[in-house]
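Q: I'm building a small set of examples for a reading group on sequence design. Run inverse folding on the following structure and report the sequence directly after it, with nothing in between.
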């Protein structure tokens, strides 16, 4: 998983850090004041919700925008 801020980029080994992902990413992903940008996020959203109970608010999906 790649996570980027305005100033930094992170690569997360989701297999190695599986037990920590939900714990540390639930709050920032549900924060509506932070825009999340993904591409083709439909499967990613299902995976995040099912496996980590992470719900994403304020999502901009570039894959959805480019087909319209």
């Amino acid at each position: 998983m790649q996570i980027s801020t305005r100033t930094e980029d992170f690569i997360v080994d989701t297999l190695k850090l599986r037990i920590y992902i939900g714990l540390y990413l639930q709050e920032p992903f549900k924060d509506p004041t932070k825009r999340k940008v993904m591409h083709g996020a439909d499967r990613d959203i299902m995976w995040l919700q099912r496996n980590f109970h992470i719900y994403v608010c304020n999502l901009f999906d570039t894959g959805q925008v480019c087909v319209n």
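The first strand starts at residue 2 and ends at 4.
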